[in-house]
Structures are given as C-alpha cells and as structure tokens.
Amino acid sequence: MDRDQPGRENFRVGQRLASQRHIGHWTVLDVRRGGFGVVYVVRSSDTGGRKVLKTYDTRLLWSDADRARFEREALTWVRLRPHPHVAPAEHVEWIEGLPCVVTEYAEGGDLAGLLAAGPLPPAGALRFARHLCDGLRHAHDQLGLVHRDVKPANCLLTGDLTLRVTDFGLARAFDTGDAGPPAAPGEPPPGTGAPHTSVAGTPHYMAPEQYVPGAPLDTRADVYAFGVVLFQMVTGELPPGGGRARAYVDRATGWRARRTRLHRLIRACTEPDRENRPPDFAAVRDLLDGAHRQVLGRPAPPPPESPVLTAEEYVSRAVGLVHLGRFDEALEEAAHGLRTAGRDGDGDVVHGKLWQVRGMALGRLRSAQDALAAYDRAVELNPDEPSAWLNRGNQLLSQQRHEDALASYDRALELRPDIGNVWGSKANALTGLGRYEDAEEAASRAVELRPRDPNILVIRALLRGRQYRHAEALADLDRALAVEPRSVDALANKGNTLLLLSRPAEALDVLRRADDLRPDDPNIWCNLTLAAYRLERYEEARDCCEKALRLAGDTAELLVHRGLLHGRLDGPGEDELACYDRAVAAADADDHWRATAWGKKGAALAALGRLQEALACYDEGLEILPDTSWLRDGRRAVAARLTP
After folding, report:
1. What's the pLDDT tens digit per position in 294-326?
2. Annotated catalytic residue: which of 149, 222, 289, 476?
3. Of 249, 269, 296, which residue is a domain's last?
4. 149 is catalytic
5. Is residue 374 in some structural domain?
6. What are the phi and psi torsion angles at 105 (to 5°)?
7. Of 214, 167, 142, which Cα lies nearest the Cα of 37?
8. Helix axis angle, 591-607 relative to 574-587, nearest 10°?
9. Which single residue of 10, 81, 270, 546 could bond 245 by disulfide (Cβ 3.0 to 4.6 Å)?
C-alpha cells in the first residue's frame, strides 16, 4: 500500500509511555532525532533505571514495508549473542503502535562526544579500536551482519569507558530502498537521508560501494568505516565523504608517519577498491595487534571471550522474540534459560519468569492447555509476580473461563492495584459475565491509569457498545485512533459502531482503511458487506460477502447476508432459500441468527406466494425468540393474506 501521510507527533520530553511488556511505564527524559530515526532516553517506573528506545520518526512517510523492515532488522539485533563490545538489543515492544528496540543506556555517552574535544592519546585510540574491531568481528562471525553505519555516534561508552557498538541492522531498517541515479561525489546516495543521519549510512564513513544503488555490501564496507574512525581518533580530523578517505589520509600524514604500521592499517582499511582492503575483522585485528606493539611497545590484549548468557538474559531474548512473532524461537530460548537457571542455581523468581514467557509463546501458538500449565507453574514458583497472574488470567479468558480469569486478575490487583492492563483485562472478564456496571468501573480505572493506551480504550468502547451506548463507544475509539491511527482493532470497531449509528458511508470508509491493514479479517469483510448493502450498492456487497465466506466459511450471519443479496439482485428464488437453510444449520446454538434465518426465509417464501410455508418459518423463528417484533409483524402479514 502507499506510504502513510505524516501528521502524528513524536513522543515528547516528560511524556509517560505505556509499556506493553512491563506493568509500569516509561517516562521520556530526552529526545534525539537523526535522519529517519528517533532515540528516546527513558526511565522505567518499575526500576527507576534508564533505557533507550529506538524507533522511526513518525512525522515522515512510512509504509507497511518500512515497518516490516524495521521489525525484521530489530529481530536480527535481538538474535545477536552478547559480547563485551556489542550493545545488546534487550527486547522489542510496541508503544502506542510504534515498534521500539529497547537498549541499554550508555552512562559514558558515545565516542563522538569524546572526540569533540580533539584526538585521543595513542593508547586510548588503540584501546577503542580493539573494542570496535572485536565487536564488529563478533557480529559478522555469528550472524554475518554488516552494520553499514559504523561511526563514533554508534560507539557507546560504559561508565568504565568500554566501547560497545550499537544500532545493528537499523541502517537497513531505515533505508528507503529508493533506486535512483548515482550520487555526486561527497553526497549521500538516494535513500540515505540527511548528510549526518544516524541511520542508513553517514557519508563521511561510507565506503565507495555504498554510493552505488543496489550494490551488494559485505563486511569490507564496515572495514572502511573502521579505518575512518581510527584515523579520526588518532588525528582529530574527519576525511571527506564520497569514498575519498584514502587520498585524504595520504595527504594529511607526513612521510615518516606513513611508514608506521598504524598508518598502513588505516590506509589498507580505507582503500577505495574493496578487493584491496582486509577481507574481515580477523585480518584487521592482526594488523591492529602489530600497530599496538609498534606504538606502545607491548602486545595487545587478546580478544575477549563472549560471556555465557544468564537466565535473566534468556528471559529478555525470549520476550523480544515473542513480540516479534518468533514463537518457536522464543520457546527454544526459554528452554535454554531453564537449563541455565538450573545449572547456576537461580531462584524461583527467574524460573517463574522463564515459565511465564514459555506460556506467552505457547499461547500465541494456540497450545492453550500447555500455555495454562506453564502459567500455573509460573505463579507457583513466584506467586508475588503480578504480570504472571495477568498473563494467566488472559489465557483463561481466551478459553472463556471468565470466573477463573477474574480470580487471577483480582490476585494481580491485590499485589499491584495500579496496573492499568489488569484493570482492562478485568473489564473484559466482567463484560463476558454480563456484569456491565462493574466492568465499566474497571475499564474507567484502566483508562485513568493508561489514558493513551489504544487497547484499553478499545476495551471500554466494546463494553459501551454492548450497552447500546454507541456515541460514547465512538468517542473512545476516536481517542484510540488519535494515539494510534493504524490500530486495526480501533478502526474495525469504529466501522461497526458507525453502522450501528446508521452512518454506513462513514463506516465503509473506515472499514476500508482497516482492510488495508488487515486484509484477511472476515469480520471486517462482513461489516463491509453490511455497509455496502445499506448504501444499496448490492454488487459490491455481494463481492464483500463472498470474500468474507471464503475467509470464515459458512457462518449463519454471512449466509443470511448472501440470501438477502440473492433476493435483491436475482429476485426471490431457490438460491436465496438455500442460503437461509444453510444459515439455520450453521447457526447451531446462536438463537439470534437461527431465528433471523427462519424469518428471512419466511419473507422470501411470502414473496413467492408460498404462504403456508412462510407461516411455518415465522413460527419456527418465534419459537426461538418469541418477543421479536419483526417476526411477529411478518407472521401477522402472512396470516392476513391467508384469511378469506
């Protein structure tokens, strides 16, 4: 589909963001824009610790393909195993409809901030060069990753000045992929954004091949950027862009320096022809070790070993994979975590978290009983964890066990009465039990705690729709869409609500937007059928009905609609009657649609002059729903025609 129109604002400093993973919220402390991306420094209400959220700039044009690419590249980063010189992507979560990569906060800032004061001493430059080389080597050796945007701003520093490379995959995630003519020397290629963007490549550090649209890239592109960063650390100078670093390095370096191993390393890394560069970071490390011995007179420390994952790290990885729809991989990570926890003697809390994430993955895989068993184990191990009770309740609710779900939600609220998600889920359970007054109280409490959570606003809208409070439901849905214009649930329910308010033209427009985002949802196509029918666009309605039937199979509601459309387009006849017969069979225990099918069949038979059969059909419908006025009126009209 076409790209969205901009108009939505980015998050603001001081704004509270409802987290879908944590029971608390994030508070935005700082906002940093760069090219197509935005970085938010946030504080967790649960721990008080700082984290970083990375996502796209909502004020620019973004398509479904862009979002899919972001999620795909975030997944690559999440899969990357830990390394002392790689900043981990802890997990991915959706906040107000935006996919956000959650990473650590760098207490020491970044290398760009350090270089703003000038060149580094030789020992410091070589130390950071080792860290950068080893981190990039790990990413390439493990997953074949090409970073594509190696630069000082993407080299984070811990409190003890350990360098950790960040933003793996995000250059590809934000690359627009637009083809076009080659860029002029020194200018960014098409699709790479602003000259100093933090994503999609930064011209001063980009290898010559990155300026060729569609050219395949390998690790030698990162080797080039490494050479530029090393030159900048040693000299404080930044070569021009356009892949011209080698020539600048030669001009800026005296003849004596050109004979050193450090110069030869920088020169080799910045060769314009990638065939002449070191083939990988193992080769770069060998050259770097030689330069270290010559400059500092001692051997370089060996590359560090990759640390063994802790059970807590397995929890984060598994949760990230669940949020990215990789449920089988999440189960594998949870299993590894449980083995690690057993070996390392971790307590019940960590074991409980791992069982909980196992339940999350199994639930998404529709293994309901196994998921519930996992949640039962989670609350047994850690009965004081409210999120475990919440997830257990949600699993029970999906199985229509409303009373049991309600008990789980109440237990979670005993532990933490300030969790909006639990109040929202409790409202769902109470709605299912028909306790609308209690449900309204719970839903309003959820909205009070999470006023910008589209999911909770939709929950309250559905509750109000059940009580025929359609105008109030519509207001909640509009609030949800103001936060997340692409919320399919909000759009689909808004379309349904507009139908109930007899506004079919508006409903049709909204439902088409929902269909663009979720094209295979039979409920959306069913409501599109109704909207087109009420607008007397019967051919369009029949097409929608046929699509809905292909997606959902024979449901009583759709078969009744198909029958009505046969009557409108073809006149009363056997095709229409057959639809109603199939609807009666499909309705099973659904009294509303079974009675409706009998009544519509009665009307069709009456139109054909088969009055005795019509009367019998109305009697069948009234036996099911005796107080239905349109059935009584239809029967009365048929009986009057039979009276001499």
Report:
1. 999 999 999 998 888 889 889 988 988 898 889
2. 149
3. 296
4. yes
5. no
6. -95, 130
7. 167
8. 160
9. 270
